[in-house]
Write a structure and sequence with these properties.
46% of the residues lie in helices and 13% in strands. The longest helix has 29 residues. It has one domain: Cytochrome-c3 Hydrogenase, chain B. A hairpin with a 2-residue loop joins strand 4 and strand 5. The protein is of the alpha+beta class and 374 residues long. It has a 3-stranded antiparallel beta sheet with strand order 1-2-3. The protein has a 3-stranded antiparallel beta sheet with strand order 6-7-8.
């Protein structure tokens, strides 16, 4: 059989089906070439390239401050973590310190963005399974998080809030109280989610035992984030290699057991509980002080060198490799995008599954094409 999804060699009892790229349940312009026998998938080839952004090349033409804006566009559902990851790499090259208040604000924003991202996953995964009500609940709460982001930086999707050596500006006086109000509202909603979707018998039938990934396979394919932890691998960059003061926070890392669609889903639900705990601690740690460090020029020119930094994004291990040649723009920037890595295992995990379960499996790995096709 050919490796190309465009013209596979089919046996007489096989059928080739295109899933995407124009399909609402591919969550972006992804095409998967499926070869099926009856209802069973015998071959799956993910095909990307329909959303070519070229942002790594664009960075070579822009200054370090401008690259923060580019970072918003990779995983646009978790842009704060993208901002942080790039800024940490650039700060490593520039050798600048970040004030304590800015560190806590960064942590609070990234965890709120993790909640917003997981809420969108919760709602859209419910739609993938035919449960529309979950989507309405999730977006009600997500709008409240976006309101907090709008109060702090004026934007609701691409924030450009985390800057080199700190943050754009301090939060308004009413922001902390508004944030605590949201957290208290949100806690009982998570219990509602379990009643509404997590333990719904139909949802369990559609997700339990479907698309299982073993611990060994998850490691071999380089998975990260909830997709890795759902298979029982205890790895979280915030714990293993803490950054931005995460070692000072008390939180747990949710793990799954079977590595199936339900474990991947429920790891994200439990992560929202932990993010609430982290944000509460960050707010308690906030003390008056500067929000921007010193030593960053309007046009930074780091000395020649290289730096690599990785953070725990909403979709997994998000890394940035920067090379400086002493000029105003990076000589080279490469992004370790978790969605790109997580997507590759589809060609193995879809084989042997029913055609009706393909959407459930694809939705459970929670990809964003902006960082896949960066």
């Amino acid at each position: 059989m050919s490796n190309s999804p465009a013209a596979p060699e089919l046996k007489s009892d096989q059928l080739f089906v295109n899933l995407g790229p124009q399909h609402p349940s591919t969550h972006g312009v992804l095409r998967v070439g499926l070869t099926i026998e009856g209802e069973i998938v015998v071959k799956a080839v993910p095909d990307i390239g329909y959303l070519h952004r070229g942002t790594e090349k664009l960075a070579e033409l822009r200054g370090y401050h401008h690259c923060v804006v580019i970072s918003d566009r990779w995983d646009y559902l978790s842009a704060m973590n993208n901002n942080l990851m790039f800024c940490l790499a650039a700060e490593k090259l520039l050798k600048v310190e970040v004030p304590e208040r800015a560190q806590h604000l960064r942590v609070a924003m990234c965890e709120l963005n993790r909640i917003a991202s997981h809420l969108l996953f919760f709602g859209t995964f419910g739609i993938d399974m035919g449960a529309f009500t979950a989507f309405l609940h999730a977006f009600r709460e997500r709008e409240m998080v976006l309101d907090l982001f709008e109060m702090s930086c004026g934007a609701r999707l691409t924030y450009n809030y985390i800057r080199l050596a700190g943050v754009m500006k301090d939060v308004p006086d009413a922001w902390v109280a508004r944030c605590r109000e949201f957290l208290e509202f949100f806690k009982p909603r998570l219990k509602e989610y379990d009643e509404l979707l997590s333990f719904n018998p139909i949802f369990l039938d559609r997700t339990k035992g479907v698309g299982a990934i073993s611990k060994a396979a998850a490691v071999d394919w380089g998975l990260s984030g909830p997709n890795l932890r759902a298979s029982g691998v205890d790895y979280d960059a915030r714990k293993s290699e803490p950054y931005s003061g995460y070692e000072k926070y008390d939180f747990d890392v949710p793990l799954g057991g079977d590595g199936d669609c339900w474990d991947r889903y429920y790891c994200r639900v439990r992560e929202m509980h932990e993010s609430i705990k982290i944000v509460e601690q960050a707010l308690a740690k906030l003390q008056p002080g500067p929000i921007l460090g010193k030593g960053v020029a309007k046009v930074p020119k780091p000395v020649p060198g290289e730096a690599y930094v990785h953070v725990e994004g909403a979709r997994g291990d998000l890394g940035c490799y920067l090379v400086s040649d002493g000029n105003m723009a990076p000589y080279r920037m490469h992004i370790r995008a978790p969605s790109f890595i997580n997507l590759a295992i589809l060609q193995e995990m879809l084989v042997g599954e029913r055609m009706s379960d393909v959407i459930a499996i694809l939705g459970s790995i929670d990809i964003v094409l902006g960082e896949v096709d960066r």
